[in-house]
Write a structure and sequence with these properties.
Urease, subunit C, domain 1, 2 domains, 5-methylthioadenosine/S-adenosylhomocysteine deaminase (chains A, B), MTA/SAH_deaminase (chains A, B), 9-stranded mixed β-sheet, alpha/beta, 15 helices, 5-stranded parallel β-sheet, TIM Barrel, homodimer, 432 residues, EC 3.5.4.28 (chains A, B)
C-alpha cells in the first residue's frame, strides 16, 4: 500500500484534543495512520516524503450543496431574483444541455473545487451518471444524486423517479467508496407531496439519505403555506422526509419552531451564504441553528449563483455576515466557520471518518502555502485560514491517500482541455 | 521615456464609451497614450512588449481607507466588539510599536496590496514619514496622513497636530507625485470639537483634503448625540469639516437626512464592508448612498479587522451583502461594484486621472490570469472580476507606467525579508 510521510508540518486538525499539531503525519493506503509531534515508527522505506516547510495542512473541505454542471452558466445571468433567474434564464439554457455539456461542466467544477481544497462535494443534477464518471476519474469524493423536478406529466415523473433509483443502484459505493448516492426531489415547490413521498419510500428501500432545497425564499415559504397549509419544515416532516437521514439546502427562512424541529429530527442543513446573498434570498439564521444543535454545514450552490466554488469564500462569508447582521461580533467565530467547512460537513453527511486529521480517519487533506504576505505574521492560524486564506493558496490535495493536486495542478485531469471544452459548450449553448 | 505596448489584450476599461476593448494599449512614461482595437502608430522600437494572451487588464484598484501597519496585528484578536477590540487589544499593542514596526507593517501591507492589484491606498496612522519612505521605495501610490487621537493633554494635542502638519509639508506631492497627503483627526469621538476645527483650519491653510472615521457604530453615534447634541454628520458639518474636500470612513449608521447632506456637500465615503461585518458594526446603506449621489468608494480598513487587504474581497462583499440584506438582487450590480473599486475610488479622492483605462490617464493598471477554471467559460468578464476573481489572480501590476509586480512578484521590494521582519516585529510586540 502507498505510504506518505509529511515531515515538519503544521496541522490544523479539527481534533478538539489536539487542535494544532507540529510534526508528522503518516498515511497508509487511504487512511491516516499517525499524526503527532514525534517521528512515527514503522514507516516503509518506500513511503513518499513531503516536506511541510512553509505549508499548513488541514482536512479537505466538504461542499454540501451544489450543481457542478452549472459552471457552464457562470456569469451568464447575474443580479436577478431567484424565480426569474431560474425560470427565464437557467432552465431554458439547461434544457439545451446534452450529456457532453453535463460532463464538461462537472469536470470544470471539479477542477475548480479540487484546486481550492474541496475533497468531497454534494451534487444534485440530471444525467448524474455522466458526473459520476468524472468523479471516478478525477479522484474527488462525491455524494451524487439525480435531482428531480416533478412538475411534468405523470409518465415523465415516473421515469425520472426510476432514473434517480437507477443511479443509486448503479453508483452508490462505487469508485472505491468515493461515490455515494442520495435521493433528491428538487424542492417542495417543484414536487407534489405524493411524489415526495415516493422519494422517501425509495430512499427507505435503497437505504440512502434524502436531499432537497428548502425555504430558500420567502415567496416559496408563502406558496407552501397557500398550497399545503403548512410551512416547508412541517410539510416535509408530514411527508416523512425527516424520518430518514435528510439534508436540506438553504433553510434561510425558518421560525423558532422550525429550527427546533430540524434539531429534534437531526436534519442536516447546507448553508449557502454567497448564493443566498447574490439571489437576495436573505441571510439564514445560522447562529440560532447552531445554538439549537442543528447540523449546519457549508455549500457553494451552483456557480451560476455564486459565482465560484471556493469554500474558503463561503467560510469567510459565514464568519462575517452573521456578525454584521446580528450585531454580535462573537457570532460564528473563526473556529466555528472552519468546522462548518470540515468536520461539520462530515457530520452533515453522516460521515465519522472525514473532516478531522486523526489516526484512523480517511486521508483527505490539503496543504496551503503560508509563505505569503497575507498569512503574516504567523499568529493565529485558524484566523488566517478563515479570514485571510483563499482557494488559490492551496498547493496540494490528497483524497483517500492519493495526491490529486500537486503544486496547484490537478494530477488526474487535463485542465487545459477541460477549460477549452467548457468554452465550446458555452458557446454552443448560447448560440444554439 | 519608457514605453510599453500591450498586444492582443482584453481590457475592462471602466470607460463608459468603450467598456471592453480587445486590442492594444500603448503607455508612454507615466501615461496611457493609446488604447484601442488597432495597433497604435508611433510606438518606439525600444518599447517593451507584453503579450496580453490569457490575461485580462483593468485599472489598478483604489483602497480608500486603511491602516497599513496594523498588518502586524492580523489575527491577534478576532471576534470582539469594536470598542473592546480597540481599547483593550489594539491600542495597548500599538503603544509598543517602534518606528521599525510601523515600517515593517507598512511594507507587509504594501506587498499584499500590490500583489492583489491595489495601486493607490489611503493610509491613516502615526509615524507616517516611515510609511511614506516605504511607499516611495515600493512604487505604489499613497494618500497618507498622520491620524491623530486627541484624547490626551493639551500639549500632546498641540504636538500631534504639528506632526500632522509637518507630514503634509514634507511629503505632499513627493515621489513623483505618487504621494499626496491629507489632514486626519481620528474621529469625532476621539477628538474634541475645537481640535477638529484646528485640523479644518490646517487643511485650509495647507490646501489638502480631510479624512476621518465617522458613524462606524451605533454606540458612537449615540455618544455623539449625548456629548454634542447632534449626530456625527451634522456635528462635523457645524465644525466646517465638509467645507473642504472630505473623505469619511465607514458611514454605517446614517439617517436619510445625513445621506442627503453628504451628497449635497460632495463628501466622499469609504465603505469597508469586511471590517464593518467582522466588528459587527452593521451594514452601511450603500444602495441608498449611491442613489442619493454620495461619492462612495471601497476600503479594507486595517488588516486586524478584516483580516486581509484584498480589494477583490471587498468588491465581492459589496456586490453580495447589499443584495442579501435589502432583498433586492439588483442592488450594487457587478459593474457598480467594479466602479467602487476603481473609478469611484478615484472620484472619492478627487482624482480625474486614475481609475479608467483611457488615453491621457495615468498608467496604473493590472493584469489577471484568466486561464483558470474559475474564470471559465469566458462569458461576462465584469461578472467574473467581481464574483469569481481574487487578488491571487493578479499577475502583473503597473503604476505610473512602471511595472511593480511581474509574474506575481514585487519588483522593487524584498518580499521574503519583509515577511521575516514582520514575524520578528510581531513576536517582539507580543512578548514585549
Amino acid at each position: 500500500m502507498k505510504e506518505w510521510l509529511i515531515e515538519n508540518g503544521i496541522f490544523v486538525t479539527m481534533d478538539e484534543e489536539h487542535p494544532v499539531v507540529r510534526g508528522y503525519m503518516h498515511v497508509v493506503g487511504d487512511r491516516i495512520a499517525y499524526i503527532g509531534p514525534e517521528a512515527p515508527a514503522g514507516v516503509s522505506p518506500d513511503a513518499e516524503k513531503v516536506s511541510g516547510q512553509g505549508l499548513v495542512f488541514m482536512p479537505g473541505m466538504i461542499n454540501t450543496h451544489g450543481h457542478a454542471s452549472m459552471t457552464l452558466l457562470r456569469g451568464y445571468s447575474d443580479d436577478q431574483v431567484l424565480q426569474v433567474w431560474l425560470q427565464e434564464k437557467m432552465w431554458p439554457m439547461e434544457a439545451k444541455y446534452e450529456a457532453q455539456d453535463v460532463k464538461t461542466g462537472a469536470a470544470l467544477a471539479i477542477v475548480e473545487m479540487l484546486k481550492s481544497g474541496t475533497t468531497l462535494f454534494v451534487d444534485m443534477y440530471d444525467r448524474m451518471e455522466v458526473v459520476a464518471e468524472v468523479v471516478e476519474q478525477s479522484g474527488i469524493r462525491g455524494t451524487l444524486m439525480r435531482g428531480v423536478i416533478g412538475l411534468g406529466p405523470e409518465e415523465e415523473r415516473r421515469s425520472k423517479l426510476q432514473e434517480a433509483i437507477r443511479f443509486v443502484r448503479d453508483w452508490h459505493g462505487k469508485a472505491d467508496g468515493r461515490i455515494t448516492a442520495m435521493m433528491a426531489p428538487h424542492a417542495p415547490y417543484t414536487c407534489p407531496p405524493a411524489y415526495i413521498e415516493q422519494f422517501v419510500q425509495a430512499a427507505h428501500d435503497l437505504d440512502v439519505p434524502l436531499h432537497t432545497h428548502m425555504s430558500e425564499t420567502i415567496a416559496e415559504v408563502e406558496q407552501n403555506v397557500r398550497d399545503y397549509g403548512a410551512r416547508p419544515v412541517e410539510h416535509l416532516d408530514r411527508l416523512g422526509f425527516f424520518s430518514r437521514q435528510a439534508l436540506v439546502a438553504h433553510a434561510v427562512h425558518l421560525t423558532d419552531e422550525e429550527i427546533a424541529l430540524l434539531a429534534e429530527r437531526g436534519v442536516s442543513v447546507s448553508h449557502n451564504p454567497a448564493s443566498n446573498l447574490k439571489l437576495a434570498s436573505g441571510v439564514a439564521r445560522v447562529p440560532d441553528m447552531l445554538r439549537a444543535g442543528v447540523k449546519v454545514s457549508l455549500g457553494t450552490d451552483g456557480a451560476a449563483s455564486n459565482n465560484n466554488l471556493d469554500l474558503f469564500d463561503e467560510m469567510r462569508l459565514a464568519a462575517l455576515i452573521h456578525k454584521g447582521v446580528s450585531g454580535d461580533p462573537t457570532a460564528v467565530p473563526a473556529i466555528e466557520a472552519l468546522r462548518l467547512a470540515t468536520v461539520y460537513g462530515a457530520r452533515a453527511l453522516w460521515r465519522d471518518d472525514l473532516g478531522v486529521l486523526k489516526a484512523g480517519m480517511k486521508a483527505d487533506f490539503i496543504a496551503l502555502d503560508m509563505e505569503q504576505a497575507h498569512f503574516y505574521p504567523h499568529s493565529d492560524l485558524v484566523s488566517h485560514l478563515v479570514y485571510a486564506a483563499n482557494g488559490r493558496d492551496v498547493r496540494h490535495v490528497w483524497i483517500d491517500g492519493r495526491q490529486v493536486v500537486k503544486g496547484g495542478v490537478c494530477t488526474l485531469l487535463d485542465e487545459e482541455k477541460i477549460r477549452r471544452d467548457a468554452q465550446q459548450s458555452f458557446e454552443r449553448l448560447i448560440n444554439g
